[in-house]
Design goal:
Number of helices of chain A: 8
Number of strands of chain B: 0
Shape of chain B: flat
Helix content of chain B: 55-70%
Helix content of chain A: over 70%
Radius of gyration of chain A: 22 Å
Strand content of chain A: under 5%
Number of strands of chain A: 0
Structural class of chain A: mainly alpha
Oligomer: heterodimer
Radius of gyration of chain B: 31 Å
Structural class of chain B: mainly alpha
Number of helices of chain B: 8
Order of helices and strands of chain B: HHHHHHHH
Order of helices and strands of chain A: HHHHHHHH
Largest interface: A-B, 68 and 64 residues
Chain lengths: 239, 227
Amino acid sequence: MSEATSPVSRSGQGHGPPSLRGGHGGGAGPSMLFHHFETMVQQKAAVELGMWLFLAQEVMFFGGLFMAYVYYRNKFHDAFVHASKHLDVTLGTVNTVVLIGSSLTMALAVDAAQKGKRDRTRNLVVATMVLGLVFMGIKAYEYHHKWVEGLIPGAGFSGEATLGHGSHIFFILYFMMTGLHALHMIIGEGLMIMLLVWNKQGKVTGEYPSRCHAMGLYWHFVDIVWIWLFPMLYLVSRH
Amino acid sequence: MADSDKKKPDRKEAGRSGDASEPPAAQRKKRARPIIPASAAAEEEPPRNIRVRAERPPAPEAEVPSRRAAASVTEEAPRRRKPQPERSAANVAEDVAGTHHGPSMTIYFGIFGLLLVLTGVTVAAAFVDLGPFSAPVAVAIAAVKATVVVLYFMHVKYASRLIGLYAASGFLFLAILLGITMSEVSARAPAGPIDPLAPAGRVAPPPTAGHANPPSGLRPAPADDEP
């Protein structure tokens, strides 16, 4: 398959097609190479591996909360089932679709950057940002709804009596997990802004799409976290 | 030097094709022998663990039917077996970076469609009474969705094995965390109401006067089996 072409490009000139934009000041080649790397290929590999290492750490970061969720769901099963039914499945499903859509646009943006299409990259990154904002808007509406219902953890929490002992922990975990996820979304929006600036400067497309790829990896990771959160929080024992 | 080295794999291949009737155990022993000196093997073998899949050397079990085929193997063999003096960190990086050919448009949209379908399935399954299978089904669907995103959207399917290892490592340790903790939790005795004031284990008798217990000890002394 495509891997088979790898030995051919062992000339040290880097992978991928040469820059498709001929008019761009001689390409981003030498100026994009940081002094502590030998070649662009090495730099790309380092960027990619570094991002994956960071994401492995992120899995562990969220993992603590997942562990807490599994333990307390085991311990307070009935309360978790009742409390889970207070979340809006429709909104959760819509949000899942929105986030999967943003993952698609992000993946297409990375693809466009690798092919050197600057305008297409910009449009797709903007689309990703818009979908991310839609997600957070829906999430904010849900948070507001919980506030009205008195299900915000703390002294004013009203669910412990109506939903059973342990529902307080469900909502603590709900807000911790979705809140941490939303924080990642906000950071992701910031990264998208950086990406747009770099794209405007021509530092993303062409020879060095690894920045776009690394930020795409981050965005997809945030999507994967939601893929797990959605069934855990919204769908447990719905029937 | 270079010439003699080039001939070495040839002789080896020819020798192996000659004694194809040997019992497999003896063959395995023969193949294992050159790897034994660890330092020499490390020098001889390029870093295979981070190479792109397609570059793996042909399986050693492959029978070499004729002299001509053996010669064709020899052409490739020195490149793999011999140390490559010109091989720098950048060459290794090329292996890590892979070819960077992502999936096609069709695959991107196909994966998107698959993710939407799986989302629909997991929502639908949540409203059906699956009994004890409710949670496993939801977990399985989420696992498939996450795997598909990692493989196609995150290009792990098209990247080197080292990237795949990094991608899997976080989930591996998460599995250890969940697995060991939950197996411990499930093995606990059924817990009564948690009373932090109750002493753990056997209740010690109150320290009597004249007992050698330190008065400031925070823990109750272990009760000795005294008559």
